[in-house]
Amino acid sequence: MSHEPPRPASPRQWVAPWVWGFFVFSILLLFGVLLATTWRPTLFPIDLVNPDQLRPLPDLLQMPEDELSVWWPLVLVGMVAIALNFIPSNNVSRLIIRFIVILFGCRYLVWRGWVTLNDAHWLSFAASLGFYGLEVLSFFTYLLYFYQTAWLTTAWRSQQANAYQQAVLRGEYCPSVDIFIPTYNEPPYILRRTIVACQAIHYRNKSIYVLDDGRRSEIADLCAHLGVNYLTRPTNEHRKAGNLNHALKHTTGELIAVFDADFIPFQNFLTRTVGFFQDDQVSMVQTPQHFFNPDYHSQNLGIEFMMPGDMEYFFGFIQPGRDFGNAIICCGTSYVVRRRALEAIGGYYTRCVVEDFQTGTKMQIAGYRLVYLNEILSMGESPRNFQDYLEQRLRWLQGNMQIYFCGDDLPIWSKLSWFQRSCHLSLLLHNINPFIRTCFLIGPFLSLMTGISLTVATLSEYLFYALPYTLLMIATFSWATEGRYFSLWGEVYEVTFAFPGMVQLIKILRNPFGKIGSIVTNKGTLSNRKRLNLRYTWPLVAFLIAVSVGVFIRYGGYWLHIWPPMEYERSGLEVMLAWTLYNAFIALIAVLSSIDQPSRRQSDRFPVCTVCRFQLGDQTYWGYTRDVSETGAALLLTAGRFIEAQRDTVGTLAFLEQDFSVTAAVVRSRTEEEQCCLYLRFLEVSDEAQRGLVQLLYGGLTWWHKPKAPNGLDAFWPMLIRLFDFRSLFSLYSNH
């Protein structure tokens, strides 16, 4: 039978978009009236809040007298950026390049702190010093990042896995493994493919348990039909942690593997991970999370085959660095843990809204070794719309902050090593990043409107000290992470999350353990209409409107002779203008990428090319698939003639290489590149065929599933093009 996902109703919007628009217009009108009544282009007189003349540079920071020499730092950075295209990113080369970045960063911060602070007025000094403090904090965060990712364990762990798996493959080491699949509200069709994939894992001594906190009869029937164990409990106390702890009491396996209901393990998952437990010091092996569907940001903009997902940087680069000092983060799925160690710490940690990070931290406090194998051995489903993504990240933010209010249970700062504590400090700074990002977003604009320059320097000084450091950071980040992180794209994520994250931080600080937001992330959600999501992005829309109006008031007034002639403009405000326009560019991309596209497809299609035979009545047709999903396929026929099959004509599609068949109905047929293409919808999919489809679509890291790793220019141009074609606003459907 066919297993098609339902189409849920779109969530209700409590505040109409026009209400927010009227509110923003009122604020801007009030601001314009204030400026008009003072009859000047800025809120404060420029000569009052800025120095009359620039501070002379000390001998140490003197600019070169030759104008051409001013460009040498930029030329040097350009040479480094070009050289990075020919230098492989490894532990040694990254150390060298990062030292160069740190030198440029120190040079920039010394210049900023010594020369550019605005001390013309107490308000100017407070704003300038505060902004400089945020820059120092950002540089300190980079130093922590440099320390924690100085030596990645990726190659070393893969070599260990190669050695350890030999005993597993020979059957010499085969401890019992209980596979836990916790579920709450996931649709049965999602759970079915996870169960089928777990059954296909190449490991004989395993037992599969579906932990249903939804207590659903259809899930119990599904488990009985597929032949796996079904566990439930009378309450949902402690959410996922309580569900897992309940399963611990009813199972006996020496090792426990956990997969979220939407994660599909590869057949070699256990052979690559179980071998590590031959070392008695190893208590957990975590593998990366990878997703088979496009990240919602890139899909909404139509650049899903170009941009890396926002989690690739963490799983592909941060975690291997943390692994060197036993500081990895348990991520809730796709890991194996030793039961003995888990029970020794009292089971899964139940005090916080999430259980994974806290449980792993408790194991590290107890002295257990957690290992990170940086190999993609499973794939899952990422949030399909902006609301689900945002609610998931807000829940993670609360869980990550709650751990720092559990000092009685989790004595992080007294029991962990210096390296582990530095990782927790980095995470704490990352948690407050919405505040930092908001300041960087609106600070330059407020500087432009109030007339208070946050930095006081000439344009040539910026070219000499600031721009080389900025460009070097952008170039080296992408290179060091092997394309897993693109600075501009990362800023889009941060700007999108800034205002909702700020609100969440305030709620958390008021009541860290209160119920805030959603409990679980929705899976398989689809929508048949476009959603603007102004409920969440209206602050960014307001910012864009304010920038447009504010810049016109600020500079258009001079051109239209509304303001008195401008005798001079204090150095630094021109930079604030450039920074404001850049922030507006990022904010516009963030807004456009948050507009969810309607989808006409009920399941993900992948460009699978495999030989098939289609039996339609007494006629046999041969061809190969152009794309395949769990519910249908597009079949290109090798014969030259065109088939005029009527809609809903039923036949049998045989996947010859995989040796299974499905009953399929013709949806339509048309000519494509001088070939007849049949669009088929699957009607009856047997259990055997379901297993074949799961392995065909999700059973390995095929080219279309591999992480995206573009270089900076490759990533920048598609993003720039999508900004000006407004695809997310005017397109009718998403292709996925």
Automatic annotation (TrEMBL):
Single GO cellular component term: plasma membrane
GO MF, one annotated term: cyclic-di-GMP binding
Keyword Heme: no
Tagged with keyword RNA-binding: no
Membrane protein topology class: Multi-pass membrane protein
Subcellular location: Membrane
Pfam families attached to this UniProt entry: Glycos_transf_2, PilZ
Origin: domain of life: Bacteria
Domain Glycosyltransferase 2-like: 179-345
Domain (PilZ) ranges: 600-698
Keywords for the protein's UniProt record, in alphabetical order: Glycosyltransferase, Membrane, Transferase, Transmembrane, Transmembrane helix
Residue spans crossing the bilayer: 20-39, 70-88, 95-114, 120-147, 435-456, 462-480, 536-556, 576-595
Protein name: Cellulose synthase
